[in-house]
Each structure stands twice: as structure tokens, then as C-alpha cells.
Specification:
Radius of gyration: 34 Å
GO cellular component, one term: plasma membrane
Order of helices and strands: HHHHHHHHHHEEHEEHEHEEHEEHHEEE
Number of strands: 12
Domain CBS: 208-267, 276-333
Helix content: 40-55%
Shape: elongated
Family: Belongs to the UPF0053 family.
Keywords: CBS domain, Cell membrane, Membrane, Repeat, Transmembrane, Transmembrane helix
Transmembrane segments: 66-85, 92-114, 134-155
Structural class: alpha+beta
Length: 434
């Protein structure tokens, strides 16, 4: 073996060591919390301030560590393979097998297991030590790791990861899946943790109560009428509007109406609801759910009006809507299983509000043709011109529809009573005589 070969072997060994150092840095920084790093700043630890800066953009710095580890490891494998091919007499597949076998052991132990173990056992020391080199190398490489991630996302089917699949969030998601598969956590807990990560990628528009489902009260209505709508709809907060739903002037709270009615019963029929309404909070429909949840918690708000890009009312958002993105649908003890079809003794039929109008011919023997809607609930909303609430009645297509009960936190109509309308008999004077 000549001196050039010795240098080639030493270079490969040095690259393996560097790859191991990058692995240790990745493991230490990836498992280090920003709060802990800020505590080290308070203790005036050397490198702590730089570590906080690295953790502020952790995915970018971890992608740099990964890229450089792969570069060092791949280069070392190539150098060793060339060296074996030059000095090992045998067939090409034997040379490849020897190179792969030897480097597999070295890569697994020296680059994979040992550095990662040390990085997590001594995460504080390794993270402080590696913060400055990682920051400097990330600056030198610039956008190269991010560009490579974009290329990878472009050629990968489906939705890619913005910071790459090597970010700490993605690794934590995988750890949660493994924990659920190992029966360490329940499936519902796994879904809840995943939902927390998705909050930042979900907008208010996706979880709001849409404009068409909003129940509101006109500003000139008195307290008695407002109380009646509260009781019929099942809501405890209602938007107060002027000319239309794009003119939301405030929110009426059930407890405010009850308190005012208790303190001054004589104004129940004379005082308009706009005199006791609360101010409106406006929210853009593009706002991330996690930011909106933090804001509503900080301001102690429960409900807000969602506006679209043109300034019109797109819907309503409540804190319960946001929490449902984490814990799933919130129901109460009054919710019942959805009924599809139930024939009653008085000749009426109870159906789900989602029952298709195309299937009504099977119940009543004639077609109900309405091109604008597909369900019984949609048919009622169309003819009422507003969201149906319990007690709402519509007569259309020879049938009488009565909204029966609401269910769920949003109090949407669950079931509808339908009966055929019997035409009134003609008067005797109207009957033509021969």
C-alpha cells in the first residue's frame, strides 16, 4: 500500500468520524427544547445563546446536519470501495460484497448507533458544542438543503413536508405512531396528538360554521323575541345583524338577556336586543387555527365573525370549533343516534335531515323534484330562506315538513317529520252542474 492509499484510507476514516459527529449533533439538538436552552442562557453557559438561535429554526439546521452526514458517509464509502477494488484480487461482485459488508458495519456502529446514543445521553454538552458549527455550516450551504427538499417533495406523490421528512415534528409523529402500535398509548390519544400538529396547517375557514348554517337575530327584535329564538334554536350566543348577515353589529348572550329580564321585566317587550349586545370580533378566514385558539384564550372570547377576502361574512367560529380539531366532535347527553326512516302511527314519517329527496318517492309514491337541493334539510332551508330550527314548518311539493329536533353542539336539525298534505275539498257552490 503506497502513501496515496494510506491518505485515502485516513481520509475515509476522518469522514466517518465527521459523519458520526453530525449524527450526534442531530440527536442532541433534535431532542433539546428551546425552554431548556433559554435556561442555559440565564446561567450564562457558553454557546447557549447560539443554541437558542439554532433552535429557533431547528428544521433548517437539522437538515444541514443530515445533508453533511450523508455527504461524509457516502464519500467514505466510495473511497473505501475504490481502495478495495484496487488492492483486492477477485471478481467484481466479491469486491462489492466486501466493501458493502465492511462499510455497513462501520456505518451502523460508528455513524448510526454510537453517536446517536452519545448525543442523547449528553445532549446538553453536545448541543452547546455543536450549535456554532451547525449555524456556520448552515450559513455557508445557504438554501441548498431546502432546495433539495423541494426537489424531493416535487418527485414524491402526495403532499410533501415543508421542512422535509427529517424535521423533529415528523420524527415525533412517527414516535407517536410507534407508541400506539406498541400499546403504550391509545388510538384516540395518537389521533389527538396528530391533531395538535395539524392546527398550524388548518385555517379558520376549514372549521367555521358556514354562513348558510348561521342562526341570527335582527337588531330591532325585543328581548322577548330574542329569548324565544334562544330557546328554539338551543344556542346561548347569537349574532345580532342589521340589514343582512354582512351587517353583523354584535353578539347577544343568553345570560345577558336573562339577567336583564330578571332585573327589569317590564322592558321585555320594549327594549331591543341591540342595547345589550356585546361587541363583534372579526377574524380573517385565512388565519391558522392554532393562532386563533391562542388569541381567543388570551382575550377570553368564545365566538367571532369570520370574514372573507372581500369583507363579507363567511361564517362564525367558536372556541368549541377549535377544540374539536384536537379532541374530536363534542356532543352532550341529549344527542341520539341518527334516524334514517321511522313510520309513525299518525301517518307521519320521521326521517333524517340528510335524507335524500330523491328517495321520498319510495315513502309517498310520487317524485319530489328540486334541482337546487339534495336533502330534506336543504329543501326546508331553501323554502324558509334561513336555517331551520325546531318547530319550523314548510309545505312544498304536496308535503308538510316540520323540523323536529336539533342535535350536536351546533344544534343542527337532526330529524324532520313529513306527512302528505290532503287538498281541501271544493265548496259545493264551486262544483259545476249539468
Amino acid at each position: 500500500m503506497n502513501p496515496a492509499d494510506v491518505w485515502q484510507l485516513l481520509t475515509a476514516a476522518l469522514l466517518v468520524v465527521l459523519a458520526g459527529l453530525f449524527t450526534a449533533a442531530d440527536a442532541a439538538v433534535g431532542s433539546f427544547s428551546k425552554a431548556r436552552a433559554q435556561e442555559l442562557v440565564g446561567e450564562s453557559r457558553a454557546g447557549a445563546q447560539r443554541l437558542v438561535a439554532v433552535l429557533d429554526d431547528a428544521p433548517r439546521h437539522l437538515n444541514t446536519a443530515l445533508l453533511l452526514r450523508l455527504l461524509c458517509e457516502t464519500t467514505a464509502i466510495v473511497l473505501v470501495t475504490l481502495l478495495i477494488a484496487e488492492h483486492y484480487d477477485g471478481s467484481w461482485w466479491a469486491q462489492v460484497a466486501f466493501a458493502v459488508g465492511s462499510m455497513l458495519v462501520v456505518s451502523f456502529v460508528v455513524v448510526g448507533v454510537a453517536p446517536r446514543t452519545l448525543g442523547r445521553q449528553h445532549d446538553e454538552t453536545v448541543a452547546l458544542w455543536s450549535a456554532w458549527p451547525l449555524a456556520a455550516l448552515t450559513t455557508v450551504l445557504g438554501p441548498i438543503p431546502s432546495l433539495l427538499i423541494l426537489v424531493g417533495n416535487a418527485i414524491t406523490p402526495g403532499r410533501g413536508f415543508r421542512h422535509g421528512p427529517f424535521s423533529t415534528e415528523t420524527e415525533l409523529r412517527e414516535m407517536v405512531d410507534i407508541a400506539e402500535a406498541s400499546a403504550l398509548i391509545e388510538e384516540d390519544e395518537r389521533k389527538m396528538i396528530h391533531s395538535v400538529f395539524e392546527l398550524g396547517d388548518t385555517t379558520v375557514r376549514e372549521v367555521m360554521v358556514p354562513r348558510g348554517d348561521v342562526v341570527y337575530i335582527e337588531s330591532h327584535k325585543n328581548l322577548r323575541q330574542t329569548m324565544s329564538l334562544f330557546l328554539r334554536s338551543g344556542f346561548s350566543r347569537l349574532p345580532v345583524v342589521g340589514e343582512n348577515l354582512d351587517d353583523v353589529r354584535g353578539f347577544a348572550y343568553l345570560k345577558d338577556v336573562v339577567r336583564r329580564d330578571f332585573e327589569a321585566p317590564e322592558v321585555e317587550f320594549t327594549q331591543p336586543v341591540e342595547e345589550i349586545m356585546r361587541p363583534v370580533v372579526w377574524v380573517p378566514d385565512s388565519k391558522p387555527v392554532d393562532a386563533q385558539l391562542r388569541e381567543m384564550q388570551a382575550r377570553r372570547q368564545h365566538i367571532a365573525v369570520v370574514v372573507d377576502e372581500y369583507g363579507g361574512t363567511a361564517g362564525l367560529i367558536t372556541i368549541e370549533d377549535l377544540l374539536e380539531e384536537i379532541v374530536g366532535e363534542i356532543t352532550d347527553e341529549y344527542d341520539e343516534a341518527e334516524i334514517e326512516v321511522e313510520n309513525l302511527d299518525d301517518g307521519q314519517v320521521r326521517v333524517s335531515s340528510r335524507y335524500p329527496i330523491d328517495d321520498l318517492d319510495e315513502l309517498f309514491g310520487f317524485d319530489v323534484d328540486d334541482e337546487d337541493v339534495d336533502s330534506v334539510g336543504g329543501l326546508m332551508a331553501k323554502h324558509l330562506g334561513k336555517v331551520p330550527i325546531p318547530g319550523s314548518v314548510v309545505e312544498a311539493h304536496g308535503l308538510r315538513f316540520e323540523a323536529e329536533q336539533a342535535t350536536g353542539r351546533r344544534n343542527q336539525i337532526a330529524t324532520v317529520l313529513i306527512r302528505q298534505v290532503v287538498p281541501e275539498p271544493a265548496d259545493a257552490g264551486d262544483v259545476p252542474r249539468d
